[in-house]
Design a protein that fits this description.
By secondary structure, this protein is mainly beta. The protein has one helix spanning about 35-45, and strands spanning about 10, 15-20, 25-30, 50-60, 70-75, 80-85, 85-95, 95-100, 105-110, 115, 120-125, 130, 140, 145-150, 165, 170, 190-195, 195-205, 215-220, 235-240, 240-245, 255, 260, 270, 285, 290-295, 310-315, 325-330, 340, 350-355.
Length: about 350
Amino acid sequence: MSFSSKILALLLLLTTFIPLHAQDAIINVPDISGLSAAQATAELNRVGLFLGTITYDAPVSANDDNPDYSIIGQSPSANETVASGSTVDVTLRYYNVLLRYDGNEFHLINLSSVDIALQNLYFETDNRRFEARQWGETVRTGFCVQAWTIFVNNFYEPPECGFVQGGVGVLRNIPTNQQFWDNNDDVETFRIVQNGMLRGECAIASDAAEDIPQDTCAIWLASNQPPEDVTEYLYFVYDSHYFYVQNRSANQWMPLAAIDIEGTRSLVENRFFDFEPRANLDFLAPQQCLQITDGTPLAEGTVPIVDCDVIVQATYSSADRFWLDGFTINGTLDVSALRDCPSVINDEVSVCLVPR
């Protein structure tokens, strides 16, 4: 899966980005079979590799109450040698949602045994955006929902869809700026984003209209709200010289897209994903962290305040340590609330846990 450049807006000054991945020219690819995509990303980044394209082996059975969405294939294979910075494509066992579409119509089909939440789910290109919640709170198991670029009375029912969801499950003649799957802007793909996580990227419709929609795209969407594979909080650890954003979970992503950190000092926008080699910094994989330092070296024998895989380091001047006086988090899922983190007192380690 390729990941879009969603904004991680840390509003800071005078940044030097230092990629901290392994610098070996040749790397043995680890065995990531049986892992989740988040766990696999952590393992790959740890040795200097990156998660590539995600494909799926088969649709999940509607009778499977506890499906295994782990990795069942990878390319290159385990123990092959590749250059540092290479990507590893993976195959997951199941997908639970099928998208079927053409130039006129778009169908989202829930193949799983549970309802899938539509809150905080978006389909988008750079210029168009559709909010899935227009279809309601959920798409029911075995049902599908539809969006049309035209007005229709007798809508089409795809063969994979048991029933078209009633009420607002059929949206007709939607505005042009929401027609994300239709190739009106010379774009090649559209993105599926759920709770700040990029869940998939699919090709734009290849045909203007068909009797039976020909284009399909298989994806996985989390069924509940918030998603089960996403941390329920953001976690910050800092003292006078070091500031960390850390994912402490064992198997969940920590989304950072659109999270703003606002301090009290002179600020200018920078983004952690503007460096090479590219890491997926819209969200942290398990046990990963971002580190900001003023360059002060650790004293001999001193233990770092955080034990984690530092995937990128940003160095700031001592005058620009925004966290010393406390800061505010803006952009959590509860968008109406700002979360304040405390200042550093007497050079002690401070911890700020922000519910999402």
